[in-house]
Specification:
The structure holds two protein chains of two kinds. By secondary structure, chain A is mostly beta strands. Helix content of chain A is 0%, strand content 50%. Chain A contains no helices and eleven strands. Chain A has strands at 5-7, 10-13, 19-24, 31-37, 44-50, 53-57, 65-68, 75-79, 88-95, 103-104, 108-112. Chain A is globular. Chain B has strands spanning 4-5, 10-14, 19-25, 32-38, 45-51, 56-59, 62-67, 72-77, 86-93, 102-103, 107-112. In chain B, 0% of the residues lie in helices and 53% in strands. In chain B, 34% of the residues are buried. The N and C termini of chain B lie far apart (38 Å). Chain B is globular, with a radius of gyration of 13 Å. Chain B contains no helices and eleven strands. Classes of the chains: A mainly beta, B mainly beta. At the A-B interface, strand 4, strand 5 and strand 10 of A face strand 4, strand 5, strand 9 and strand 10 of B.
Chain lengths: 113, 113
């Protein structure tokens, strides 16, 4: 079991560019979550999937954000037309649907210049 | 409005002594309560959890206490070790089909040798 992995670990982009992050969950986990963490705050929920179905989206997930989990395995989070306020750590977590505990990846640090 | 509050941004403890981290929540409908530890540049690591039907759960040096009437939980670390120095997040969830965790802002614990 290699745990949750995320790629890239760091991304620097210019305002207005699109970025895409990838998350690979623990292999047997059917739930996958995306969170965002800014300085001095705890992680804030963005969205989650059960298998390939996106079951919930936070109001934090503006129209510029889209997430997919096409085959119920890895997931991608895309941010279009990035803004400086999008600078944050983007965290992915996974779990079994029958369990409460979520296991987090190392995160992708996004810096928008 | 913050649904989960960790009112102490930081805590300093001597090695070998007890560390007590506190968390307050607002909604009595929360079913599960978790503690995560986070080192810089890493994702949160699950430590221990408790369901609303219990008032105490122990795992080695870590004990979580839940006071439902006060909507308060605490994490005790005994004895504290320098490797415990990290940011500790309290998280809550409704359980069941509700997937997302709601986090506090965290408490930075420093354990001095």
């Amino acid at each position: 079991d290699t745990g949750v992995s995320q790629d890239p670990r760091h991304k620097i982009t210019k305002r207005g560019q699109n970025v895409t992050f990838r998350c690979d969950p623990i292999s047997e986990h059917n739930r996958l979550y995306w969170y965002r963490q800014t300085l001095g705050q705890g992680p804030e929920f963005l969205t989650y999937f059960q298998n390939e179905a996106q079951l919930e989206k936070s109001r934090l997930l503006s129209d510029r954000f889209s997430a997919e989990r096409p085959k119920g395995s890895f997931s991608t989070l895309e941010i279009q037309r990035t803004e400086q306020g999008d600078s944050a750590m983007y965290l992915c977590a996974s779990s079994l649907a029958t369990e409460i505990t979520q296991y987090f990846g190392p995160g992708t640090r996004l810096t928008v210049l | 409005d913050q649904q989960v509050k960790q009112n102490s941004p930081s805590l300093s403890v001597q090695e070998g002594r007890i560390s007590i981290l506190n968390c307050d929540y607002t909604n009595s409908m929360f079913d599960y309560f978790l503690w995560y530890k986070k080192y810089p540049a890493e994702g949160p690591t699950f430590l221990i959890s408790i369901s609303s039907i219990k008032d105490k759960n122990e795992d080695g040096r870590f004990t979580v206490f839940l006071n439902k009437s006060a909507k308060h939980l605490s994490l005790h670390i005994v004895p504290s070790q320098p490797g415990d120095s990290a940011v500790y997040f309290c998280a809550v969830t409704y359980g069941g089909s509700q997937g997302n965790l709601i986090f506090g802002k965290g408490t930075k614990l420093s354990v001095k040798p």
